[in-house]
Design goal:
Layout: H1 3-14, H2 23-60, H3 70-83, E1 87-95, H4 98-105, H5 107-124, E2 130-133, E3 139-146, H6 151-166, E4 169-170, E5 176-177, E6 180-186, H7 195-212, E7 217-219, E8 238-244, E9 250-256, H8 265-286, E10 293-297, H9 300-303, H10 308-318, E11 326-329, H11 332-336, H12 340-352, E12 355-359, H13 364-374, E13 377-382, H14 393-408, E14 412-416, H15 421-430, E15 434-436, H16 446-470
Parallel strand pairs: 6-7, 9-10, 10-11, 11-12, 12-13, 13-14, 14-15
Antiparallel strand pairs: 1-3, 1-6, 2-3, 4-5, 8-9, 8-15
Helix pairs in contact: 1-2, 4-5, 5-6, 10-12
Length: about 475
């Protein structure tokens, strides 16, 4: 074993606080074997050796052990982002006034402080991100590849990491609060392709952010970006309300692209549709409008992507929303005849906490118990199949059977495509939990949802007052 390796091994052992826990046992063994003289030597020598090892390590520039293969893993994440048609990115974090703080604290306390920062960043990161501590100081967070990663999302992540570090207080003559400056670069924003160029661009941005002032943030943007033809086309979403049959309150809004967008666009524009839905939840919250969830049809190709659950988790985190406020409606074929990739993705989505809206039909009842084990599932009824529900006993029995199936499995039920007030009333009598369709309201732009929801609340309040008057 070389001297450097020996020093590194001693330091690694000496830095563990539990080493000194063995000192009493070592002292007792020394006393038994060599008497009081051996006891005195052991009691003094072990702490002294630990201190000497730490001093030698500081003088030798021995740094805490780093994760091996960072460059290879960064290259792998860039490759993965290219395979899925998405992006990854680097967030470089540099401690503000790091050199002055290191001199002020000393090597040992500075190393301990950096270890505390590293632990804090790990807890603040998302699953799938990669953390690396640089030998030259600072930290790199590599963002998990995603088709929906953009500068806005990366900025929100960087701000959250900065906030987590800012809560660290170091004990000293006077308490010291840490701050970090952040530099961001996305994989398609670096001046050249490759891991080295991406990391260097993020470091340049971080140094620029630190020069601008404490806890600065700067994004590196170069001309090397995607051609416009490669960018997903965006279309404004429409929102159709879903009402609770018990209370009449808004249970959620289902999103669609409307007639102006072709069906072929749905898969391509789906990430943007998801972002519009989550952004709408934040908008309703700011307007003090109560909406429990948004509902999106999920294209089959998205369900075959094994990274879908991770992407959803990221988007939910980006908009500061809980998973139960997002409901996804898989295609009927994906439920009736799922392939292994789809089955795995559906389970991951349910475990994440998102709601799965499964429309009753051929094959749907077979998968319900399996999906129910993973998370929350709602059973839907296609009311367009029952155009005379309020007057046809046969259709009423068929609808009642589907709703009974949901009740037996302890599932919430809903109905789509409710076209008449009679069908609405009949479904409520049969025990359907939520209804949606032209009889309630047509799909509308987001701006109109605020007025519609408030008007619905006023109708409910008026009905409640009328009921009190009649009693």
């Amino acid at each position: 074993m070389t001297r450097d390796r020996a020093v590194r091994w001693i330091v690694a052992v000496a830095r563990q606080p539990e080493v000194l826990a063995f000192l009493p046992a070592l002292s007792l063994a020394a006393y038994w074997l060599g008497g009081e003289h051996a006891l005195l030597v052991t009691a003094l020598a072990v702490p002294l050796l630990c201190a000497i090892a730490a001093v030698i390590a500081a003088a030798s520039g021995v740094a805490p052990p780093q994760s091996d293969g960072f460059d290879a893993r960064l290259r792998a994440m860039i490759t993965r982002a290219e395979e899925i048609g998405g992006r990854t990115g680097c967030v470089v974090l540099l401690v503000d006034d790091g050199d002055a703080l290191a001199h002020r604290l000393g090597q040992r306390r500075w190393a301990d402080a950096m270890g505390q920062v590293q632990g804090t960043l790990r807890r603040a990161m998302r699953d799938g991100d990669l953390l690396h501590r640089c030998d030259t100081g600072g930290f790199v967070v590599v963002l998990s590849p995603s088709r929906s990663l953009d500068i806005e999302a990366a900025l929100q992540i960087a701000l959250r990491l900065q906030e987590a570090v800012s809560r660290i207080t170091l004990p000293f003559d006077a308490p010291i609060r840490l701050g970090v400056s952040a530099g961001i670069c996305l994989s398609d924003g670096a001046p050249e392709s490759g891991a080295a160029a991406l990391l260097d661009a993020a470091r340049q941005a971080a140094r620029g952010a630190r020069r601008a002032g404490p806890q600065g943030v700067r994004a590196y943007t170069a001309a090397r970006s995607r051609p416009p033809a490669a960018q997903p086309r965006s279309s404004a979403a429409l929102f159709q309300p879903r009402l609770c049959t018990d209370t009449g309150a808004v249970a959620g809004f289902a999103l669609s692209l409307g007639d102006q967008a072709g069906s072929a666009l749905a898969g391509e524009a789906w990430p943007d549709l998801l972002a519009q839905g989550l952004r709408a939840l934040s908008g309703w919250e700011r307007a003090d409008v109560q909406v429990r969830c948004v509902i999106l049809a999920c294209p089959a190709e998205a369900l075959r992507d094994p990274s879908l659950a991770a992407m959803l988790e990221w988007e939910l985190d980006r908009f500061d929303q809980r998973a139960h406020r997002l409901a996804l409606a898989p295609p009927r074929d994906a439920i009736a005849n799922p392939d292994p990739e789809t089955t795995q993705t559906l389970g991951a989505i349910a475990r994440l906490g998102c709601v799965l809206d499964v429309t009753d039909g051929h094959g749907a009842h077979e998968c319900l118990p399996r999906l129910r084990k993973h998370g929350k599932v709602r059973l839907g009824l296609d009311a367009t199949r029952f155009r005379h529900l309020d007057s046809d006993p046969h259709q009423q029995r068929a609808a009642a059977a589907a709703l009974a199936r949901a009740e037996k499995l302890d599932l919430t039920s809903f109905a789509e495509g409710v076209a008449t007030a009679g069908a609405h009333a009949t479904l409520a009598q049969l025990g359907c939990g939520e209804v949606q369709g032209p009889a309630i309201a047509h799909a509308m732009p987001f701006d109109e949802t605020l007025g519609w929801a408030r008007a619905n609340d006023r109708r409910l309040q008026h009905a409640a007052r009328l009921g009190d008057t009649l009693r």
